[in-house]
Design goal:
Blueprint (H helix, E strand, L loop, with lengths): L6 E3 L4 H8 L7 E5 L2 E6 L23 E3 L4 H11 L3 E5 L5 E6 L10 H12 L3 H15 L4
Parallel strand pairs: 1-2, 4-5
Antiparallel strand pairs: 2-3, 5-6
Length: 145
Amino acid sequence: MIHNPKTLNARASVADVRAALDDDHVHMVLLTDGTALVGTVVRSDLPPAGADGPGLAWSTLTGRTVPADYTVSDVLDLLDRREARRVAVVGTDRTLLGLVCLKARRTGFCSDADVASRSQDRDGVSRAEHADVLTDVLTRDAPNR
């Protein structure tokens, strides 16, 4: 499970959702109000090009969420029945807990490490390297104590 999936604020526009889905690794946009999941949008949910308005109007939760106590078998069965690869995991109060993401070949699940690796590939620099550079700059520029 991806523990900190990317989300958009529930007030995001259709244009914002389209922009998020422009990333070919993003297959479902999670719309949140605070920590609560209030909608999900996949490409096929979107209105025709040129239409705008609130993304939430084109979202659904039906069939795209599972409770935290679902077993791996339950999740796989749901994904197979829906011919889907993504499902959000929510608490009893709709708190977003994570995203279960079945890999394209359906041979395993995406992980936080997979997401971090793709982010590094896209940026060309890892977050750890960014942190090291920032630490060097802050240390160099800090007054001697």
